[in-house]
Amino acid sequence: MKRQVLNIKIRQQNRGHGKVVFPKGVLSLFLVFSFVLSSCAKHPASVPISKSSSASLKKTHPKFLSQLTEKMYGLKVIPENKAYQGISIRALSAFKHPTGKTSQEEKKIPLIQYGFKIFNNTPKEMGGKIVGDLLSCGSCHLKDGRAPFGTSLVGVVNRYPRYSPRDKRVIGLKQRIEECFERSENGKEISKTGKAMKALLAYFAYISRNTPPGTIGYGYGLKPLLLKGALSLKRFKPSLKIGEKLFVVNCSKCHGLKGQGGMDQKANLFAPPLWGKQSFNTGAGFNKLKKLIPFVQANMPYGHGGTLTPEQAEEIAGFVLSHPRPALHP
Ligand code: HEC
Ligand code: HEC
After folding, report:
1. 296 lines ligand 2 (CB under 6 A)
2. What domain count does the chain have?
3. Is residue 79 domain-shared with residue 54, that is, in the same domain?
4. What is the Å distance from ligand 2's center to 142 Cα?
5. How far is the C-alpha of 321 from the C-alpha of 330, rounded, in Å?
6. 20 to 30 A Cα–Cα from 183, which one of 32, 77, 279, 285?
7. Which ligand is nearest to the CA of 219?
8. Which of 222, 231, 90, 215 is nearest to 155 (CA)?
9. Pick from 162, 190, 217: which residue ends a domain?
10. Which helix (H) or strand (E) holds 235?
11. From CA 330, how far away is CA 70, in angstroms rounded?
12. Range of the domain at 138
């Protein structure tokens, strides 16, 4: 409740100072969008949705979002109920391998299970020589890489090989996996022929099994609407004061006041670090506002994604990225 009150106050402040400038249509779309989501999340709806907004409302329909995703990635989107159906990866990870005769499919299961383990417990599975922070792949690719708009990787096997603007050449999926190790994991390359790489590839093939060649799952990657909105970033200068206030209220409870991450009573990390020595490095995608903003807006505070406005997510992301973090290849 307290959060809502603060949110509204800051939203008004923003408007007054004209700090974050969105094209008019986009702004109203965003506001409507966040109201819709906040009411879905059973938050007390702060502002009722007016009738005149209903036209913009349609644009936040899954079909509209899918169209934007298709444009962004150039691949056809498979609807959520189809892309995510079948045995859950959690169920598969508990699967005991049968003894005796096994089918070709069953033979693949242990490798997929190992890939799942690496994905969700990267520092422990790969060790400190490879991984240089406390993040797992699953810290950013939420819900086992299967959360719509939570950097989803459902269909990732169909995106590669492709031209990488960063590398200025065509790269394969193995190379792209290495890049998340070097940047987001602040670590080192892993062997391209080793068991860990094979396991991650098997895992990605498994979560992509309902997305045939030429397609990706609903909600692939990050939320396109917000990436569009982030174009205003050219003019965006985060106000660290507003960002800090919003961070303390909405994020610090889990990620710590110093962004150091949070431990539970048994000293297990439950929320990963956002900056400092144990966080992703300066080469990571999340070190860019245009990637961090849509992630934060759609997914954080954890369990309440969509409750922050894009403007608030911008201020918070600006505050998060104002702190030091490891350099790429120091
Ligand atoms: C700090 C957050 C973070 C961590 C940790 C992380 N990633 Fe990523 N990853 C990203 C972001 C951001 C993108 C780019 C998403 C986009 O542009 O839509 C990405 C993209 C990818 C892609 C390419 C997707 C595409 O369609 O091009 C792959 C593959 C990938 N990550 C695998 C991994 C693996 C494997 C790990 C663990 C070893 C990992 N990531 C850890 C943030 C992270
Ligand atoms: C209720 C606890 C909670 C709150 C509140 C919360 N987060 Fe998170 N956050 C998490 C958890 C848990 C993860 C990792 C998800 C996983 O491992 O499945 C995460 C992951 C992240 C990540 C990607 C991993 C990393 O460390 O870089 C970012 C960025 C992030 N949160 C930012 C924020 C911001 C910004 C806020 C405030 C708007 C916030 N979070 C609020 C729990 C929380």
Report:
1. yes
2. 2
3. no
4. 10
5. 18
6. 77
7. 1
8. 215
9. 217
10. none
11. 37
12. 75-217
CB atoms within 10 A of CB 90: 10
Residues 249 and 183 in one domain: no
Taking the CA of 142 as reference, the closest ligand is 2
Q: Residue 43 pLDDT more than 60?
A: no
Measured from the alpha carbon of residue 74, the closest ligand is 1
For 160-193, write each residue's pLDDT tens digit. Answer: 999 999 999 999 999 999 999 999 999 999 999 9
**% helix / strand / coil in the chain, to the nearest 5?**
50, 5, 40
DSSP string, 209-229: TTS-TTEEETTBBS-HHHHHH
301 lines ligand 2 (CB under 6 A): yes
Asked if residue 258 and residue 196 are part of one domain, the reply reads no
Q: Per-residue pLDDT tens for 119-138?
A: 999 999 999 999 999 999 99
Q: Model pTM greater than 0.70?
A: yes
Q: Is 189 exposed, middle or buried (0-12, 13-18, 19+ CB in 10 A)?
A: middle
**Ligand 2 proximity of 95 Cβ (cutoff 6 Å):** no
Would you state the structure tokens that stand for residue 37, as one six-digit string? Answer: 């989501």
Which of 323, 239, 220 lies closest to 18 in space, CA to CA?
239
Q: Which two tokens stand for residue 292?
A: 């961090």
- Domain boundary residue, one of 168, 185, 217: 217
Whole-number Å distance, alpha carbon 272 to ligand 2 midpoint, is 7
- Ranges of beta strands (E only) in 89-245 are 162-164, 169-171, 215-217
Ligand 1 centroid from CA 49, angstroms = 35
Q: Which CATH number does the domain housing residue 291 bear?
A: 1.10.760.10
Share of the chain above pLDDT 70, in %: 78
Contact 202, 46 (CB under 8 A): no
Q: Best mutation site among 2, 139, 252 for ligand 2, i.e. most ligand atoms within 8 A of its Cβ?
A: 139
pLDDT of residue 263: 87
* 153 in the same domain as 99: yes
Distance 55 CA to ligand 1 centre (A): 34
Would you say the CB of residue 273 lies under 6 angstroms from ligand 2?
yes
Same domain for 191 and 106: yes
